[in-house]
């Protein structure tokens, strides 16, 4: 089996809070978020034998306790993900998936087959605002919000929800309030969007939100959720009480 492979980070402590992971990137995504920092993974193909990825997992297995599949959108390569998750499980590694939530039935199948332990689900904008969602994903926001809602429901026992905030896009307190109201009471991570890492010139003029601005947003989310974390380049992860 071939994998459209984007690369690995052999050891990461930031993709899964409290775990040491190998992160494996898959190419291609159904969305076109203007801020995508992995936009190069959405363009070309790089087909490799699945055994190459298995070998990366084998090399890392004594130094990590988890494998995180990222992208792109990893669940687009569904057979490959199932096979690699099963391979990781044979070494007693935990499996996490970073996803935009556009394939809820695939997430359901992974859960039902005990192939995943954590689902890091992007809620990119208020689910009650399909128009804004369209702007954030560069695609049909009504369809995406409906799929993400379904993913939230299916994955509720396995979830960490994430929103990456960018000035000029999703940055207002009312946006975060609406998201916090829409999601279950799971860990919610507000991430500092770095427009310089993406390709969109318009967003670059705003620069990244500051740590203090993220704290203010997190405090809004804390009114609805028990566990809210911010993640910034400068300070890493901080739990906001
Ligand atoms: S969903 Fe993620 S990988 Fe896909 S375009 Fe958006 S930011 Fe990039």
Report on this model:
With 241 residues, the protein is of the alpha/beta class. It folds into two domains: 1-28 and 35-120, Alpha-Beta Barrel (TIM Barrel), CATH 3.20.20; 123-241. Helices cover 34% and strands 25% of the residues. It contains eight helices and ten strands. It has helices at residues 50-60, 78-90, 104-112, 130-137, 141-154, 173-182, 201-204, 211-222, and strands at residues 2-12, 21-26, 47-49, 66-71, 94-99, 118-122, 159-165, 187-192, 228-232, 236-240. A hairpin with an 8-residue loop joins strand 1 and strand 2. The radius of gyration is 17 Å and the shape is globular. It binds iron/sulfur cluster. The site of iron/sulfur cluster has 10 residues, from loops.
Please give a handful of descriptors for the protein shown.
10-stranded mixed beta sheet, single chain, TIM Barrel, alpha/beta, globular, binds iron/sulfur cluster, 34% helix, 241 residues, 8 helices, 10 strands, 2 domains
Number of domains: 2
**Could you list the spans in which at least 5 consecutive residues all have pLDDT below 50?**
none
Order of helices and strands: EEEHEHEHEHHEHEHHEE
Q: Describe the biggest sheet?
A: 10 strands, mixed
